[in-house]
Design goal:
79% helix, 0% strand
């Protein structure tokens, strides 16, 4: 009965349910291991800059994976590409749990990033190929709800099971392996293979300079407080429960504005919604930097506000770019946007870790405020070049 009451256009989401189930398991596994590795590395005495490099290695692998997304999906199809990369990701997290070594972790995170780029491109190109512009941002918002719910639940496994031993590495590996099942049992509504196109950053930039720049900014900021959040919390003296609240708040807060902002961008100029969300992120970062201090609840509240504005930005930028994509180009556009996001994510955590090492934990939010302010200025410049009609 609930499905019968759906808007006719939203009924197009029904064939995507197995895909969203696979995405939930995949994102849970990835979110758990990202927090676990940062926490275990800090606990093992790894320097902040070294944890930043391990994080950057993941995003470097992610960027490299983007180069091979289109030819791989075109050659073997969406489901087989997903299954192969999920299997490789399972192996990397098992090996990471067998040896606590920063240089081994760096290599494993590089491989894992490569796999995750292809996995996320399969999901996002599949979604974009099956919906039209009138509901694109709202559909991507639902996908982000899956992302946020899975990521948030993953954070509480740290205090529930403890960070010691192999248990959490094993749980992450199980989730990676299980993510293959729903998508493998899906119906035959698989999108057409992508066009035979070389990876061309100029092509992606031409489609939407604003979306490309936005993905870089999102990669530089959102990954910082999620990847280095456990280090930030340890330096402020938070325990594992407080750390879980902090990380979860930064993720689950995206639920608050994800769909409302998506709806607004579907019915008006997406750029104005992107500008408003980024401006809100700047204000939240400044509040954290100047006023949160070492208070657990002030930091949780501040990062909740930051996530509420910042988390929807990737979906908004993705919708803005995919509005301009033609048939057979959705995988290509997804690859390009993920590459720009990964480029920002390589630089962001590494640079923020160096800044934190010199100026203390709080400087992390000075970094996010500065980066988001630059994107605000660029968005205003795009309005000047192409005013709202």
């Amino acid at each position: 009965p609930v499905l019968c009451r759906l808007h006719p256009r939203m009924k197009k989401l029904i064939p995507l349910l197995p895909l969203l189930a696979s995405a939930a398991l995949l994102i849970f596994a990835n979110g758990l291991q990202a927090t676990l590795i940062a926490w275990r590395g800090s606990e093992a005495g790894f320097a902040t800059w070294l944890i930043g490099l391990i994080t950057a290695a993941y995003y470097l692998g992610f960027a490299l994976g983007c180069l091979h997304i289109t030819p791989l999906i075109r050659r073997i199809g969406h489901i087989r590409a997903f299954s192969a990369m999920a299997a490789m990701s399972t192996v990397t997290i098992i090996l990471a749990g067998m040896a606590i070594d920063p240089w081994l972790w760096m290599v494993l995170r590089l491989i894992n990033g490569y796999c995750l780029a292809i996995l996320f491109a399969v999901i996002e190109s599949w979604i974009n190929a099956k919906v039209d512009n009138s509901i694109r941002a709202r559909t991507l918002s639902i996908y982000r709800y899956v992302d946020l719910t899975s990521n948030t639940s993953a954070q509480y496994f740290l205090p529930w099971f403890g960070a010691e031993g192999f248990v959490l590495f094993g749980i992450s590996a199980i989730a990676f392996a299980l993510s293959i099942t729903p998508i493998s049992l899906a119906d035959k509504s698989i999108p057409a293979p992508p066009d035979q196109m070389n990876f061309n950053l100029g092509f992606f930039w031409k489609i939407s300079p604003l979306a490309a720049t936005g993905c870089i900014a999102v990669g530089m900021t959102n990954t910082v407080y999620r990847a280095l959040g456990p280090v930030y919390c340890r330096e402020l003296g938070f325990d594992t429960i407080s750390t879980a609240w902090f990380i979860s708040a930064s993720i689950i807060s995206g639920v608050v504005l994800q769909y409302p902002l998506g709806y607004l961008s579907d019915v008006r100029d997406r750029r104005s919604v992107i500008l408003a969300a980024t401006s809100g992120g700047v204000c939240a970062s400044l509040l954290l930097f100047f006023f949160a201090g070492a208070s657990v609840w002030a930091n949780v509240a501040g990062v909740f506000l930051l996530g509420a504005f910042s988390m929807p930005l990737y979906s908004l930028c993705s919708a803005h770019a995919n509005d301009r994509a033609g048939p057979g180009q959705f995988a290509v556009v997804s690859a390009g946007l993920l590459f720009f996001w990964a480029a920002g994510a390589i630089v962001g955590p590494a640079l923020a870790a160096l800044i934190m090492g010199h100026f203390g934990a709080k400087s992390m939010f000075a970094f996010t405020a500065a980066t988001q302010s630059i994107f605000v200025a660029y968005t205003l410049n795009r309005f000047a070049q192409r005013p709202v009609k």
